[in-house]
């Protein structure tokens, strides 16, 4: 009887143990979710950037800003230093420029008619003017072309009086040209700020010359 009772109690304990674990499943804990906007694949020894993706993209889009280009004029340069000035421009890498000769100190005023391609055509024009009563005419060769000189005056008023006399006999192609001390001016287009600074330093070694910004013009345009 006692053996039967012990066996019965043992069976009850087994049934109770099985009933307690039935219907239960064991799940491993899930890892925390990843942010949808910041997923990176790291391979080998690669390391993710320290900043956010937006900061890295902004850094890649940053481009250096080029120096501003300008058009400049250097002058006056004395004609006796003209070759030295051209050498200085070449040493700075400035090979394309406009060179003009200007009167910087006027001493007289010249009445003339220019644009003759040959001496014969200028002589014919002078003969025609003399036939109209115009005197004091001479033919001069200036820089490869020929000019009718109609008088040189110390004051502009005297040159204007002469021009009016010519107008009264229908000579309307005469002009007044200032004469005096002349100098060379150089105009250079599209110069970077660094070269402007270098040319300014070079210009300081030429008497009374300076570098200034001017309105840009085509180098092929007539001065």
Order of strands in the sheet with the most strands?
3-4-2-5-1-6
Structural class: alpha+beta
Contiguous uncertain segments of 5+ residues: 23-28, 33-44, 50-66
Topology as a string of helices (H) and strands (E):
HHEHEHEEHEHE
Helix content: 25-40%
Distance between the termini: 137 Å
Number of strands: 6
Task: Walk me through the structure.
The protein is α+β, with helices and mostly antiparallel strands and 223 residues long. It has six helices and six strands, in the order ααβαβαββαβαβ. The chain has helices at residues 2-21, 53-61, 82-91, 119-131, 156-168, 193-203, and strands at 69-78, 98-116, 138-142, 145-153, 175-192, 210-213. The chain has a six-stranded antiparallel beta sheet with strand order 3-4-2-5-1-6, covered by helices on one side. The chain is rod-shaped. 13% of the residues are buried. Residues 23-28, 33-44 and 50-66 have low confidence and may be disordered.
Defining traits:
single chain; 223 residues; alpha+beta; 6 helices; 34% helix; rod-shaped
Short description:
This protein is α+β, with helices and mostly antiparallel strands and 223 residues long. It has six helices and six strands.
Record the SSE blueprint.
Layout: H1 2-21, H2 53-61, E1 69-78, H3 82-91, E2 98-116, H4 119-131, E3 138-142, E4 145-153, H5 156-168, E5 175-192, H6 193-203, E6 210-213
